[in-house]
Design a protein that fits this description.
heterotetramer, A: alpha/beta, Pyruvate-ferredoxin Oxidoreductase, domain 3, Rossmann fold, 4 domains, seven-stranded mixed β-sheet, six-stranded mixed β-sheet, 20 helices, 36% helix, 19% strand, globular, B: alpha/beta, 2 domains, eight-stranded mixed β-sheet, three-stranded antiparallel β-sheet, binds thiamine diphosphate, binds iron/sulfur cluster, binds magnesium ion
């Protein structure tokens, strides 16, 4: 892992080559920073850099223009080699107004580059941001390289003739900023010009204004002879790539699961940040036979998905923490009915409404135990944006094969983050097709709870199948016949069977892998979205000869069969989590192994520098 | 059109053409499951079960295309007794589960059986949303004005002042009028009948089955253990004659012995009970169940706050409106027609891609 | 009478006599909290906040006796901006939390602020039950026909066909008419107004505050980010004149330029829009908000399915019915009077006891 | 613990003294067995026996008369010494019909007494119960002492002249049975006669019929010279006693908490078995200023209780498993608001609707973790019917002192079971009164999250207090001011504070006690309703010299401070639970101590004989 070089202070005639760069775009909610970041990401990806991004939305409600609460940011880390995190400290900050500077300056590396829209540094905005003097000239930015660019006025100048109104034209200043950055990092403009043409197909004047601003920014960079750099493409495995966010990968994975299982996809969902985008995305693919239903609430959403599952669809419901709370009771019903169902929880900061736009990993124990009675179910967790595709398919595979609801635990960081994705070949995707019951299974009768000897799954007979009419419900039922039963021994048996059914999945999932030097005495175990950071930090430590290995759990329940064995190979097991130690608790109770927790609940991913120093201290 | 699992996407729920079970030959017994019925002796639920089982063969829907969905309550045990597909869900959530079934599978005929607690207390929201969406569901609300299964607490339809286990000093709450609530929730089919109505009850069931969209029937059901006689005003020998106002489409609304009384709309805009001999039949309101404006149906529902005095029975409203599932299906069809059927490889490679060799 | 914590059990929520804050002298500013208001510039919520803050001093309720309760949504941030007691609850549950407050403490004036998603989608059940019970709450439903906070999905009041993030091919759902729904749920006070109505909005707020029991106001609120112009039919220069039907008690219902149009009840029992010059003013329906029978109020609510053509504004219904909290309190009083105040030692030793020495 | 003696086979002229007896009354749902059991319990209690009872209701819906599903039973264990369980094997079974015999015979001790209502053993009833031949004369009951009594006809005879109809008269046959048993165990008739007079005050003829049947049964016993026994009063601590069920004790405890805290009690609840009786009971005490509100659902119920808590009431909500699921989200809000609230979960068999009338201890982990985000709260568990009184007061004490919601975990067995209760003296109850905030606490401002240094509780300022107007909500808030805050460090701090607040309660609860011989090397740890059975079994084992000790957790979160220390004293820790090992999981993860689980999920309490033999095997 190459250290991120601070850009040189003078303006070079030639492009300097850099191994990696972290850029953060920041501005007012209305300034279009997410779009700017997105476009920059897109061209960087197409250029062949490896990259990781992290958007940082403002708090739920648009705050007044110019205020700190209204700042929206987007960070991209791009490189000529394989990287894992969005980067802790941006080397470049683009700040469209004083509030954006104020809110983000603390994160920027010393000596880093500040690209500031000077037009917005007026008295009102400075006050709103809480500056008592103007940082542009009070010397407070002396330890950074400051580029003062009157972006607003230059944009307005540039869009004259586009036919856009002044206000519309002014709103193109984000494209001006993108133009400047495109010059600095030699990103092509064409894909963005094409994109703008499509996006504003119906408003030609706006398209023109945006293109003009983009070009003007680029031209300004060139004329003003701003520093110019080059970040070469990364060496990635051969194949076709695209950039993908976690929520998009999830949606694609679910559609793939529908195709591979030959079951129509049915999503019952209720909007909630940061899960709503999966609903939005899936709602677009009606030509795949995808049915999406925005329910009246989360209870209805899962109820509808369960009803669809009963009738032979791939039933899915998506939500975030507060919604998962509400789904508890119906999840218990799904466990009792033994129907396949995928429940996706995109975790955010809790408890209660908490930090709705921030990330956290604090729903693990809730997913494990958040239902009354003995109600076990499998839990799968993606570990990066692209891995959401895998997680969706894997959840569907388990749900369908074992006739059980499955919880997929993603998080806000993965959901909104993006990375290049090596597009899988469709014919290499697993076949997860199912066989509905079509015949009586006990003489002339159909017993809905007659189990498969190996998977312990019950048969799935769907309405429309003559002769297999049957009733299922949430009261305890006799194993086999499925008739209501209050028999004590049967309840014991059914409880054990429901548990055993989850346990047998152990045999059917990938074993836990770990990597690290042979002499590693310490194992760092993680799950979910911390994958990249832990991986990068362990790389760095190993590069410095520290005896550390790492393993990442993708199945949380059941855990891979060899988990205990892997953990016991090491002298010390360290579990970094964005919660107060939830996986740690599971490991301790399951394997009776001492763990050391590193916990962080700041609504943000781990800072890799901080995690590195914490681990460093713990390695003997 | 079929989806990729081979399910028909065509309109269902009535007038099914092919049937595996040989529909023509089905009888009441074919709809009786092998489970022992476990309601208290004398419970009104028995009569409703019998009525449902008796009309099923007439509907021309094969058994395997029928699904009964319920919540929790005495009434909600219903699906176990029907030899069709069935789900005994959780308390209050039957309309949600049923909405999933009906919108996933428009070829099925989906019935919801619920109680006044299940459907109007904990499940009130799902109920009103199902009605608003006009999901193709036949919803039977067994209104016994009490919580039966949990042994006698008041329900949202119990009358004010009711003394129950949870209201030893009498309830202080205004009850819902389920017909008014359903109409306020945009229901397209709203009817009321009584468990002991041997002809009217099956007739209402048939009407509900024939309606495309949400059909809501309030069935007054006697709980002889915890709320015996709640409907005496309509079921006693005297009350039966005096208080039942049968609504019949296109007919002047008359009731009581020989139709001696009737309903009239005043110019000031409210309904009055009148003596027909005094005002003449011409003055009477003619019932129009198909009127799209729900105003009049609502006004009729206000004639009685509860089943105590003259109370309308029959179909208050039956109008056509797009059915939720149909809307969903036509979007699927249109998308498939416009964009062609989904191509996974194309989807995964959509947007900006680049190749590494 | 006071309970054993010294709280007054006496009727509250208006006409408070003593006040710690010196009510007479309160101004609008006293009700402005120190928190920065964080709605999008141009959002209709600002006007509603200003109206509420401006009428508060007139109500004669000291600040500390006022509680604002909300769920989650843009609108639900409201309590933070009021310098009173307040709870920003969870999505849809404000009416439940507020019911707890109002029935525990009848001396308080409790307001609920909710959105069309918060109040009618996830929270629909609590809302209808609060209305049915006639809990002493002032419920303001900010209807912008969209989910604002979650960035633009359709809501239960969005019109059919609406294209939103979650319905890229258009919604296939029939919306609720909040006024009809509230009336179907037995609401005792039901009104409608618009965020931009500088006089009418405060007037409706005053009326709601003066009503004992649940007062429900639907406020059309423009979300200029995700659903701009939803109410143009009522707020555009032309629409304002043509389409606003102001309901005024005891007045014939007239609207449009110089009241040239009006509403008439036909003998067949439905409402018609008529030209006053053609039919004469005498034919017009005279609005009677106090009529106990909700039928006519409901009929008025059906005049417009959404705010597209002529749409009634004002108080649809205002009637007196026992208030939930009052019923509760009077049972407490009666029990204390009958049985004497509770004696714990006596309670613990009630029933069969025996002594061991 | 004296062994239960099988009653002698011949009929003695004198009453034989027995140390303890277990009687089970069984009949059709409509036969009034619960009432019969209740009356027998009441007079036994008043007589001074120690006793434990266990009702066993039929499945939710009244099944057809005469069917197995419709059998309702009531068991009472009464003795001349201190006992802890309702007894495994009844020595006496009263069976009112063939189904009652069939359903219960398996439990009766060999040689036990069967008192059968022969009138009901007709062909139809025998068939309904699934007997192929009549057990009265096919020899299948040979190993029991069978008393064949035509109770129905004798009852009908006896009630002639009461004015009751034949049908009404016949329904008095349960009183006839009670009369017989009263003779056999020399229980007085007067209290029951008095009771009947009150109960049927408005229907004199029915009162008369019942009294006549009762007396007739007694007379029959005497005339027929049935066996007669005596069970002397137990030696209990001096004081006044009454019999109490768990749910009743809970209701009284809550009222006591209201009185002792000087806060009005507010219950928001939605009916559900087996919790509804607490609502029914509390609804009666309006003269205590108790407000009960039957909400539209469980979410509303807790919302209302929380609203009441905000306004200064003692907010309570009662439910069972499915209802607890629904309360999850609002519980999270209560944790975020830091308001006192008591949430009572009376556990029943799960998952889903499960076994609604049966007992189980399977909501412990749900109570611990069943909410999204990091949302810890205290958990208190009663361990016997009478201890529910303590648990209610203790929950209120903790909730009020630490400004936190508390979960009280009872179960169906405790809730419906009864035992004698030494009525506490009111002036010895703890003072748990609270001080509402009445003054600004930071200059002229009021900060709602300015914490007490010791308890970490925030101040409770209730509406009506001028100058302390403030807003609370579920978004993360700044410690101190309570203003909405998205600050990362503040979220970390608040998360830690919320956890620390629960942790400090350790210092404020009774340490874990254990009892056992000095040489005990094995510790049996339990919680909740298994207290009696574990205690009895350990007594027996110790009496036989086995080196076993026992401890019972009454606080599950936090656990008493010395818990780890106590557990570590022993070589082996055995955890019997009516679930699949939930406390065991907590102990393992918290203390990294190996545990041996004994799990039983049969909807019933542990059988003490079975538990004894299982433990026996585990003791080295
Ligand atoms: C979540 C949940 N809450 C409460 C219950 C308990 N419960 C079961 S049925 C019922 C009400 C039954 O009343 P109703 O719906 O009127 O049906 P009825 O028994 O009268 O037919 C209640 C409260 C439950 N099973 N689940
Ligand atoms: C349990 C739960 N589900 C979903 C959400 C996400 N959510 C927050 S506000 C909202 C809807 C907002 O719409 P509305 O009530 O109309 O308020 P508006 O923002 O339009 O004022 C949703 C779905 C949540 N916070 N909690
Ligand atoms: S309790 Fe009432 S509703 Fe339930 S089965 Fe018995 S009679 Fe019917
Ligand atoms: S999103 Fe809409 S409703 Fe929300 S603050 Fe902005 S304009 Fe107002
Ligand atoms: Mg009922
Ligand atoms: Mg809205």
């Amino acid at each position: 892992m190459a250290a991120q070089a601070a850009p040189p202070a003078h303006i070079p005639a030639e492009r300097k080559e850099l191994p990696r760069v972290v850029v953060r775009f920041a501005g007012d909610s209305g300034d279009g920073m997410q779009l700017t970041g997105d476009r920059f990401t897109s061209v960087s990806a197409a250029f062949g850099n490896d990259l990781v991004t992290m958007p940082d939305f403002p708090a739920e409600i648009r705050a007044p223009a110019g205020s700190l609460a209204g700042v929206s940011a987007f960070q991209i880390h791009f490189s000529d080699h394989d990287i894992l995190t969005p980067g802790d400290q941006p080397g470049v900050l683009v700040a469209m107004n004083p509030a954006a500077l104020k809110a983000n300056l603390g994160d920027v590396m010393r000596g880093g580059m500040l690209i500031l829209n000077t037009d917005s540094f007026d008295k009102r905005n400075l006050e709103k941001a809480g500056f008592s003097s103007n940082p542009l000239d009070d010397g407070s930015l002396d330890s950074y390289q400051v580029y003062k660019i009157p972006m607003t006025s230059m944009t307005i100048d540039s869009v004259k003739g586009s036919g856009a109104s002044k206000k519309e034209g002014e709103r193109s200043k984000n494209m001006f900023a993108l133009g400047v950055l495109s010059w600095m990092y030699s990103r092509p403009l064409e894909p963005t010009i094409e994109y703008l043409g499509k996006k504003f197909a119906k408003k030609e004047s706006i398209a023109k204004a945006n293109v003009a601003a983009l070009k003007a920014g680029h031209a300004f960079g060139e004329t003003a002879e701003l520093s110019a750099f080059e970040v070469k493409p990364a060496t990635l495995a051969p194949g076709r790539y695209r950039r993908i966010t976690g929520n998009q990968a999830l949606a694609y994975g679910l559609i793939a699961a529908s195709v591979q299982s030959k079951l129509p996809l049915f999503l019952g969902s209720y909007p909630i940040t940061p899960a709503s985008d999966v609903l939005h995305e899936l709602a677009r693919y009606k030509n795949f036979g995808v049915r999406t239903l925005q329910a009246e609430d989360e209870i209805a959403a899962i109820g509808m998905a369960l009803g669809a599952a009963f009738s032979g669809h791939l039933g899915i419901t998506t939500t975030s923490g507060p919604g998962l709370d509400l789904k508890s009771e119906t999840l218990g019903l799904a466990i009792s009915l033994e129907l396949p169902l995928i429940v996706i929880d995109i975790q955010r900061g809790g408890p209660s409404t908490g930090l709705p736009t921030k990330t956290e990993q604090s729903d693990l124990l809730h997913a494990m135990y958040g239902r009354h009675g003995e109600a076990p179910l499998p839990i799968v967790a993606p570990y990066s944006p692209a891995s959401c595709f895998w997680a969706a398919l894997e959840s569907a595979r388990i749900a369908l094969k074992y006739m059980t609801p499955v919880i997929l635990l993603s998080d806000g960081y993965i959901a909104n983050g993006a990375e290049p994705w090596h597009i899988p070949s469709v014919d290499k995707l697993p076949d997860i097709s199912v066989r509905f019951a079509s015949q009586p299974n006990v003489g002339e009768d159909f017993w809905p709870y007659l189990r498969d000897g190996e998977t312990l799954a019950r048969p799935w007979a769907i309405p429309g199948t003559a002769g297999l009419e049957h009733r299922v419900g949430g009261l305890e039922k006799a194993d086999g016949t499925g008739n209501i039963s209050y028999d004590p021994d049967n309840h014991q048996l059914m409880t054990e069977l429901r548990q055993a059914k989850i346990k047998v999945i152990e045999e059917d999932i990938d074993p836990l892998e770990f990597d690290g030097s042979d002499d590693a005495r310490v194992l760092v175990v993680g799950w979910g979205g911390t994958y990249g950071t832990i991986g990068e930090v362990c790389r760095r430590l190993r590069a410095r000869g520290r005896p550390v290995a790492r393993a990442h759990l993708k199945h949380l329940n059941p855990m891979p069969k060899n988990t205990g064995e892997v953990l016991r190979r090491f002298e010390k097991v360290i579990v970094p989590e964005l919660n107060m130690g939830q996986l740690s608790k599971l490991i301790r109770s399951e394997f009776l192994i001492e763990t050391v927790s590193i916990n962080c609940v700041r609504g943000l991913p781990f800072s890799s520098t901080e995690l590195e120093s914490e681990l460093e201290e713990l390695i003997p | 059109m079929t989806d990729h699992n081979g399910h028909s996407l065509d309109e269902g729920g009535r007038g099914i053409t092919e049937a595996s079970g040989g529909i023509g030959t089905l009888t009441r017994e074919d709809f009786v499951s092998d489970q022992e019925v476990r309601w208290c002796p004398g419970c009104g639920d028995y009569a409703i079960l019998a009525a449902v089982q008796s009309i099923m063969p007439e509907l021309g829907v094969p058994r395997e295309k029928v699904v009964f969905v319920s919540g929790i309550g005495c009434s909600s045990r219903f699906p176990y007794y029907m030899n069709t597909y069935g789900v005994h869900g959780i308390h209050g959530r039957a309309p949600a589960i049923a909405t999933g079934i009906a919108s996933a599978r428009p070829d099925l005929q989906v019935w919801v059986v619920t109680g006044d607690g299940d459907g109007l207390s904990i499940g009130g929201n799902h109920l009103i949303h199902a009605l608003r969406r006009n999901v193709n569901l036949k919803i039977l609300l067994f209104n016994n004005q009490i919580y039966g299964l949990t042994k006698g607490q008041y329900s949202p339809t119990s009358e004010q002042g009711k003394v129950t286990k949870s209201t030893p000093f009498g309830s202080v709450e205004q009850p819902f009028n389920p017909i008014s609530l359903a109409l306020g929730a945009e229901a397209t089919f709203v009817a009321r009948t009584i468990d002991v109505e041997r002809k009217h009850l099956p007739e209402m069931l048939r009407r509900a089955a024939a309606h495309r969209g949400s059909a809501f029937i309030e069935i007054y059901q006697n709980c002889n253990i915890f709320n015996d006689g709640a409907f005496l005003a309509l079921t006693s020998k005297e009350g039966r004659t005096q208080n039942r106002i049968y609504l019949e489409h296109n007919r002047p609304i008359r009731f009581d012995r020989d139709g001696s009384k009737g309903i009239r709309m005043t110019g000031a805009g409210h309904l009055e009970l009148v003596d027909v001999s005094e005002v003449g039949e011409k003055e009477l309101l003619v019932h129009d169940e198909h009127r799209y404006d729900a105003g009049l149906a609502f006004a009729l529902s206000r004639l009685s706050a509860g089943p105590h005095g003259p109370t309308p029975l029959g179909v208050f409203r039956q109008v056509e409106r797009p059915v939720y599932g149909d809307g969903m299906e036509s979007q699927l069809r249109a998308a498939a027609a416009d964009q062609g059927p989904g191509d996974l490889a194309k989807l995964l490679s959509s947007g900006d891609t680049w190749d590494v060799d």
